[in-house]
Give the backbone structure.
Amino acid sequence: MKKLILSGITCCLLFAFKTGQEKALPVIKISDNHRYFTAGGKPFFWLGDTGWLLFSKLNRQEAIQYLDTRQKQGFNVIQAMVVHSSKEVNAYGDSALTNKKIAEPKVTPGNTYGKGKEYDYWDHIDWIISRAAERGLYIALVPVWGSVVKESHITQSQGKAYAEFLANRYKGYSNILWMNGGDVPGTDSLKTWKAIGNTIHDIDPTHLMTFHPRGRTQSSTWFHNEDWLNFNCFQSGHQTYAQDTAKKDLNYGEDNWKYVNDDYAKTPVKPTLDAEPSYENIPYGLHDIKLPRWNAAEVRRYGYWSVFAGGCGYTYGNNDVMQMHKAGEKMGSYGSVMPWTEGINMPGAKQMGYLKKLMLSRSYFDRIPDQNLVAAGQGERYDRLMGTRGKNYAFVYTYNGRDMQINAMELAGSKVKAAWYNPRNGQTAAIGTFAKAKAMKFNPPGEKKNGNDWVLILDSI
């Protein structure tokens, strides 16, 4: 095996940086107003899934099943860890690293190793990224999970060497993004995260990059002014209002829209999104598996709240899918017992596509968050009404089907056509046409209760 000296550290020489993609996708870019994404000049609404262990747990047949399912459900971004552990091996038993050293990726000639012709770790990743491109899916690559950097005391120079390897290998793929970090505060190994970010950005300035922080924190806290941070993301986390007792954080609780508000007000202007809200089918607070589990209604609420507040997209997660729990395995983390092949079809996943469908159904780049749409009683916690609008339309979301008083005066025209959009099935029901007013009253279908969520649609006439 040949070696290459990178920044004074030995690293494996890559024999072919790119195996060749069958399909090239438009590279995702930042919109002109710096709030959203575009791809090929068209609006790109980020609908992500946390397929964290895609590369290490799934074989090629399983990976195709996963990618096909998420593509059919409307997802367009998969967040996946490149190295989750210094001991990482893939489904074929090949190691990611030589002697557990992050600066020495274990690369072999060809795409197989061993007498059984098992698939090489890195070529397996290449193959999955290419298959994702064929399905119109982008992969947000997490170079190395935060716990590995922290526990292994990875230095700046080691991080730089590893980042050089990754950037050179994947810069030629059109369907990648970079997600530096991994469930840690930026202050944990701050210099190493900056070294990784700067190195990837220097070699691969074409692809966008962010930083994935720990729960109840946001990338902008540490890296907003870094050149390599093209957009912000935050992890609203998995705790309930009652469980959220941390004093060091912003302590927004389940109100993930407040993180968007915070990022939205920062300069320079950068897009932001919730990259890890509560996962469907994971226990409240993660660790006590006897507690109730987050359900589809709750993950919908996180989605509509954050997007209507000005988010450029939303990432969904499922407890069993994110760890690729397989049938026959012992109980996984956080009480996971359902195989990922079943968890992938839980109702919340399909319903995420309805959010994307709605956001792309009207003019996109003129959309702004606007709480002035709520004429009275914006509400707190689950009573919260969340409004967003363009020049000729407005959306107002309620999680529990409460009554609304709406101010439509900022919309064009003298009349509005009103309808209810159902986040559970993506269907629209007409209400009627009304003269535009400052306090228009609307009563959503059904009784007021959590999970009876609706979007009021107003279109200018």
